Amino acid sequence: MKLAYKILYCHGLGSSTTNRTAQFLTKYFAGTGNHVELLNYRNPGSHTKPWRISEWREDIENRIKHDEWILIASSAGAHCAINAAISRSKHVKGLFLFSPGSALDLRYIETVQPGAKKTLENGGSIIHPASRNGHEALVDLVGLKQFMETCASRREGPIPIDCPISILHGDKDPLVPHQNSIRLAEKFSSPDVELKIVPGGSHFLEMTPETIAFFERFLARFSVAENERVAAKI
């Protein structure tokens, strides 16, 4: 498999660089000669420092300010990857999003921890639980509102990203309704957006033969792009 770009994976809130998706990517690209990097956020989750989506976005922007990259991101990581793709459009040549945390409101935190909304609105904070091998994270109302208000889906008009985009979302996701991804896919200005809703899929999607085939269809776009680039030089 030949790709023209570096690949950066950005995990979601409560997760880590050792999650199932990160492990899949590491194994999938092993020995292919492609550069795969699992982003280490400055604050992936802490019991003392409140989580801020703006820091995650800056971490992505700083990492991709040189060269050309394909961004692969999950959940809240997809939120900041989309914004980074807007601000670093010359450096982002593709987006693959797992269960993107798009268009969420305070009801989200209630699905994570019942009663959390009232705690946050009263000036308190909560510890966002970790998924398998993940990081627990201190969350307050300031951070959660920043997450909601800076979501690219809230922009007026199209989301100005023109590279190929693929979105994978389960129709049984209890944290982010899959309808959010349907609306998100419609907002991108890119003419090359593909969305797959996985029947029975939860928020943490398994890499099955079906989802791997969808991922490989995304990657094939860049093999074609590279072949076209080489042909243009001949």
Automatic annotation (TrEMBL):
<protein>
    <recommendedName>
        <fullName>Serine aminopeptidase S33 domain-containing protein</fullName>
    </recommendedName>
</protein>
<dbReference type="Pfam" id="PF12146">
    <property type="entry name" value="Hydrolase_4"/>
</dbReference>
<keyword id="KW-0378">Hydrolase</keyword>
<feature type="domain" description="Serine aminopeptidase S33">
    <location>
        <begin position="146"/>
        <end position="205"/>
    </location>
</feature>
<dbReference type="InterPro" id="IPR022742">
    <property type="entry name" value="Hydrolase_4"/>
</dbReference>
<dbReference type="GO" id="GO:0004553">
    <property type="term" value="F:hydrolase activity, hydrolyzing O-glycosyl compounds"/>
</dbReference>
<dbReference type="InterPro" id="IPR052382">
    <property type="entry name" value="ABHD10_acyl-thioesterase"/>
</dbReference>
<dbReference type="InterPro" id="IPR029058">
    <property type="entry name" value="AB_hydrolase_fold"/>
</dbReference>
